[in-house]
Fold:
Amino acid sequence: MQNSKKHIVNLNDRARNALKALDVLEDSVSRTLFVINDDLCLVGSLTDGDIRRGLLNGLEISDTIEKFMNINFKFLKNSSDNLEEIREFKKNEINLIPLIDDDLKLLEILDLKKLRTKLSISALIMAGGRGERLRPLTETTPKPMLKVGDKPILEHNIDRLIKYGVKDIYISVKYLKDQIMDYFGDGSSKNIRIHYLIEDEPLGTLGALSMIDMIEYEDILVMNSDLLTNIDFEDFFNFYKINNAQMALASVPYHVNIPYAVLETNGNIISSFSEKPNYTYYSNGGIYLLKFALKDTFEKGKFFNATDLMDQIILAKNSALIHYPLLGYWLDIGKHNDLIKAQEDIKHIKL
Structure:
């Protein structure tokens, strides 16, 4: 809650000090204070308008904040699905919203001018690969740390998750892991929590998930670290929830144009044909949402791919596995040509 401290005051402090705190805030939109008691529980909000009204009603500037504060304040519960409420706050241009736990303790203050939303998920980014197709660049630098524009590929993905309110991010590391760990540290510089999962042996695209004992949420997002994408994580999450899925993968449309007539045959008999047809296929985009409990279906610390889990779900013969067509920008940076393309594209796309 480091970045929120300037917006927090104690109810026993004086209104005069609150005015000073309000005066140094950046702009009129952010000039709101949130009032806590000695147990760090949220009890009210305070603006300069609240102080002005209190003074007009006979209060003194030396009185405590408790006498001026508004007890009918807006807030979000961390244990709830807040997406609809956040959309309403944005619609009504309410930009600063306190996030509290079930005991009313203040966890953080959300700035909805900077956040798209706050998704109730943790995230796991797979960053342990050797990136052999990108040699010699990856001989001394892990692929996720190769720069696209002004920052590493991995940082683009972390920053995008932050925009959607994801605070707990796990990163699986192996090859040249110290470079990744030294660069991002514990995540506090970005006001998030980063946890590292060290793979002694390669664990595949999902094996590292078994190394996480528990998370705060029911769902987790897993993605490859070498992707450059502007996927709308909120839309992806809503799609996953609305379909009541166990697992959803982001799919990338792949269009095939056949320049000839395609025949439908039964032995030597032509039953029909299509003249120069167009086909759309969907490939795996390397981004998944899934129930965290699914990790219990595979062995801890053993190699396991996302496709292995998909096979398990398909064999169960239910509709719990779905795909989400990713219609925005997506690039898998696996080869030199991909990296060159990413360096050009980053000048024109908004991540």
The first helix runs from residue 15 to 23. The helical segments are 15-23, 48-56, 83-91, 153-163, 177-184, 233-242, 306-315, 336-345. Residues 227 and 332 are 5 Å apart (CA to CA).
